[in-house]
Write a structure and sequence with these properties.
With 157 residues, this protein is α+β, with helices and mostly antiparallel strands. The chain has two domains: 1-35; 77-156, Immunoglobulin-like, CATH 2.60.40. The chain contains one helix and eight strands. The chain is elongated and about 90 Å long.
């Protein structure tokens, strides 16, 4: 007898639950639970004409992302030194948007205002090993080396 009473109570609970869900989903206009009615006084939107490349102005191309667009860490004045040793082709980018391309051994120092990253170095070795080191305020922050197996290195600090 208990089993039959439990099953009957479960069936009643399921039926009431389904009734509540369908009333909420398909409620009438006066129901606060249902979907809001669509106003009749809004103008209807017609078809959107196709784009004509000759008359439609071109959208400007988005600017490629740069790791210098954001910053973190201690803002302020930092003494940054980039050292490259070896025969690699390199590109040094600085936070102040200046860059330098070259080959071989170089040491560059600069005082830069702002947060990190302050400098980036990308290197590709033609032959032999090369090393890039970025030192900020006297502390070595990043050192990477190229080898015959991995001729590309990237430093950022």
């Amino acid at each position: 007898m208990r089993l039959i009473a439990r099953r009957a109570a479960a069936v009643i609970a399921i039926v009431l639950g389904l009734a509540c869900v369908s009333a909420a989903a398909l409620g009438s206009d006066s129901s606060p639970i249902g979907r809001p009615p669509v106003p009749d006084d809004e103008p209807r939107v017609g078809a959107i004409p196709p784009l004509n490349p000759r008359t439609t102005p071109a959208r400007p191309k988005p600017k490629p992302p740069s790791s210098f667009d954001t910053e973190f860490g201690d803002r302020g004045s930092h003494e940054v030194t980039v050292t490259i040793r070896g025969s690699a082709h390199y590109l040094v980018n600085w936070r102040d948007k200046e860059s330098k391309i070259g080959v071989g051994n170089v040491t560059q120092s600069r005082t830069i205002e702002g947060g990190f990253p302050l400098a980036q170095v990308a290197m590709q070795a033609v032959r032999g090993n090369s090393t890039c080191t970025i030192t900020i305020d006297g502390d070595v922050k990043d050192t990477q080396s190229t080898t015959a197996e991995t001729p590309i290195a990237y430093c950022e600090a």
